[in-house]
Amino acid sequence: MPVHVNAFSFASIYQRACACWSLKSQRFAVPKILTPLCVFVLLLVPDFTFATMVNQPVSVFSTYPSETLLRACGAQRALSEANASQSTNLCFEDAISPDSFIKLLSESGEFSHLFPYGEGNDYELLIANVGAAPGMHRQHAKQFAEFTLQWRGIEIDSSSFDASALENTDVKTETALAEEEAQSLIARWIQHAKHSGLFTSQFLFDALEASDYEGGLQVPNAIGDFTKLDTQLYPDPFNGAITRYIHPEFEDALVDVTVYPFLDQLSSDENELLPKQLESDLQRASATADLQQLTLSQISPASRYEVNSALRGWRLGLSATSETSPTIYATTYVFKLQDKIVKVSTTFPPDFSDNIVNQLIVNVEVPQESEMMKKVRSLLLESAR
Q1: What's the mean pLDDT when you consider all of the chain?
Q2: CB atoms within 10 A of CB 291
Q3: What is the DSSP string of 293-318?
Q4: Cα angle at 326 between 323 and 332, to 5 degrees?
């Protein structure tokens, strides 16, 4: 079920969403591609399924057990009512060393970037553990662990498991017993993560009550000679979803449709909102062109763009040249539909892309405003007063 949070919980999400966008555009920059404007070759990020490996940075911390975990552990004290002192030690915090859990996670092969006690990552895994105190390990006494996953400080999943070493406990050392139980607890959480898809974009969008792009986004299957390749969610709900169209003959001819929520209020003037989207794109394109030693030109400066005298947006056309490679074109169109920006990006000049965009945009339907964005906009409105 989605994790319900109040509007103030989204303050850090909003701040970090603004800060991380520029870093993300640099991360996915590729040679000969005007990444910020149109192609987004690597920004067509595949859904981060937890099939073999978590490809996103994850910080891991030890934390205090919740009351729920303590109650679960406390229930086993009835097994040792005859010895009150030993019973008390059956719910010892960090009975298994936090470093043991981190070591096992690192060795699991499921994480490409795991940062013990690291700061600044979107995903944070908090692990709490209670159980029989070191030196007081008893047969049938269980170890309890609680795994809490957060995204930018908001809890999106919490699960707890118990484990006990039941075989040959008399001949095993305390260290061996603890390692065996830690392995069992980690294995069960990883199984839960895979089954639930904890690190997929879909799970994150659902947990934060972001827009339902799968059910609410409608785009055509074809535009002229272009056919839809796929629609995928970004790993950040503020970046929405992207649909790519490809041409059967020209592999460099691409059309991308990106749909994402804008942070302004719904009443915002589109003639102020839309140029901002192109301004940020132009800045990133300039930085990318400088990095690739390309000469950037505005063949069609940012201006209003009208479709069929009914739908109004903005358009920006760019070209990039060098002495050693063919000219690269990038034309970007932005429209405001409900609380979303619809950005159509092509790899050809406006003379060729206008007709394609005109056919496409009138057949696009976007999801309604999400509960997440309602809370964000409410927070921003209150902070502006």
Answers
A1: 84
A2: 12
A3: T-EEEEEEEEEEEEETTTEEEEEEEE
A4: 120
Note the pLDDT tens digit of each residue in 219-246.
999 999 999 999 999 999 999 999 999 9
Closest of 183, 149, 190 to residue 50, by C-alpha: 190
CA distance linking residue 111 with residue 100, whole number of Å: 16
Q: Per CATH, is 58-199 categorized as 2.40.50? A: no
Predicted confidence band at 167 (pLDDT cuts at 50, 70, 90)?
low
Residue corresponding to tokens 């994850």: 58
The residues spanned by each domain of the chain are 7-47+212-384, 58-199
How far does CA 129 lie from the centroid of its chain? Answer: 27
Q: Are 346 and 330 in contact (CB under 8 A)?
A: yes
User: What local confidence, expressed as pLDDT, does residue 43 receive?
Assistant: 33
State whether CATH 3.40.50.11810 applies to domain 7-47+212-384: no
CA angle 170, 176, 182 (to 5 degrees): 120
CA distances from 307 to 311, 341, 360 (A): 5, 16, 10
The structure tokens listed for 170 are: 């008399």
- Closest to 128 in 3D by CA, of 193, 65, 174, 194: 65
* DSSP line for 114-134: EEET--S-SEEEEEEEEESPT
What is the token pair recorded at 55? 């490809």
Identity of residue 300: S
Q: Are 54 and 112 in contact (CB under 8 A)?
A: yes
What global pTM score does this model have? 0.83
Strands (E), the chain: 58-62, 92-93, 114-116, 123-131, 143-151, 154-163, 222-223, 226-233, 241-246, 254-261, 295-307, 311-321, 328-337, 340-346
The answer for residues whose C-beta is within 8 angstroms of residue 107's C-beta and 6 or more apart is none
Contact call for residues 219 and 242 (beta carbons, < 8 A):
no
262 CA to centre of own chain: 17
Question: In this structure, what are the phi and psi dihedrals at residue 328, rounded to the nearest 5 degrees?
Answer: -105, 135
